[in-house]
Design the sequence.
């Protein structure tokens, strides 16, 4: 992986330009022409380093209800349970992690469906194992941006998406055209000189209409970002840990903001606590090794003065896909 590819990947994650010729703009400052940028992106996809470049939507603004779910499954029942859970289209990630609750998955249910009834049904199909529904009470950070640059290679003024996610300021208009646009924009962007013109042809819109719609949705908090998603393992990030803390209620917002301010944290949420699971503050970290994640956890615990925590490393990946919005339409 040469320095130019690393710099390009960094840009693709942080600020994909919503302009008629985005690949040309991406190449500016890297001494790369538009064609070279597209060829490099094509090669990175073939190497499975770069998954796709697309819109990342605020699922809540589109009427979806989502949650992290923990399930306590005996080892000899894991295959059946994982198969049952993974069959639901709204389950995008499902991991095995150590502990009493060992199967952890994320789920989103479409508008009009009950999150609780859907999870109960999946739990029944999985084997009636104890289940925790852990929706986000508050989101402090939601931005998977891998630090791919070598030390000293960052550009001054680079955008760092470490601010709390912007919530929707306007309701999503559930028109047939808008639903079609969401379904297309969540898919990979074409590697064409004017990719948004290609997307517009598919949607029956002009290039300027597509770009204008995305900028409007970004401003309204309906779209969170338009960016690249990388393959963590192919980039050398072989470990990920879900760190869970017991945090006093009166400190949770302050501690959440402290954790979210660290670049190593990709997600940070306040979630409900239960008697059998007393953890209420969650942070996801990605590292090249388990030991690197442990060092990050120690640093975070010290920064927030929160000594009571666990790190739940993923030891098996049952499912990992991009959530396909409006799969039921």
Sequence:
């Amino acid at each position: 992986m040469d320095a130019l590819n690393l710099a390009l990947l960094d840009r693709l994650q942080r600020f994909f330009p919503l302009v008629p010729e985005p690949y040309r703009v991406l190449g500016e400052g890297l001494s790369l022409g538009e064609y070279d940028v597209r060829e490099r992106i094509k090669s990175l996809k073939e190497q499975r380093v770069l998954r796709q470049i697309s819109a990342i939507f605020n699922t809540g603004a589109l009427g979806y209800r989502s949650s992290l779910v923990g399930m306590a499954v005996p080892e000899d029942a894991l295959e059946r349970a994982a198969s049952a859970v993974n069959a639901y289209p709204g389950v995008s990630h499902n991991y095995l992690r150590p502990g009493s609750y060992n199967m952890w998955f994320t789920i989103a249910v479409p508008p009009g469906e009950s999150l609780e009834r859907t999870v109960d049904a999946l739990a029944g199909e999985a084997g009636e194992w104890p289940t925790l529904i852990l929706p986000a009470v508050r989101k402090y950070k939601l931005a998977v941006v891998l630090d791919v640059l070598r030390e000293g290679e960052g550009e001054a003024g680079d955008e760092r998406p470490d601010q709390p996610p912007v919530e929707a300021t306007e309701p999503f208009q559930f028109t047939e055209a808008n639903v079609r646009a969401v379904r297309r924009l969540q898919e990979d962007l074409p590697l064409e000189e004017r990719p948004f013109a290609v997307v517009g042809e598919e949607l029956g819109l002009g290039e300027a209409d597509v770009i204008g719609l995305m900028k409007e949705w970004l401003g309204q908090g309906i779209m969170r970002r338009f960016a690249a998603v990388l393959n963590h393992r192919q980039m050398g990030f072989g470990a990920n840990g879900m760190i869970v803390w017991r945090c006093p209620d009166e400190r949770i917002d302050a501690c959440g903001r402290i954790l979210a301010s660290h670049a190593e944290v990709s997600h940070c949420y306040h979630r409900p606590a239960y008697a059998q699971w007393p953890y209420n503050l969650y942070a996801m970290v990605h590292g090249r090794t388990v030991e690197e994640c442990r060092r990050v956890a120690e640093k975070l615990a010290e920064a927030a003065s929160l000594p009571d925590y666990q790190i739940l490393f993923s030891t098996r990946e049952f499912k990992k896909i991009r959530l396909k919005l409006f799969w039921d339409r």
User: Anything to note?
Assistant: The chain has two domains: 3-47+176-231, 61-144+234-320. The chain has a mean pLDDT of 90. The longest strand covers residues 50-57. The radius of gyration is 20 Å.
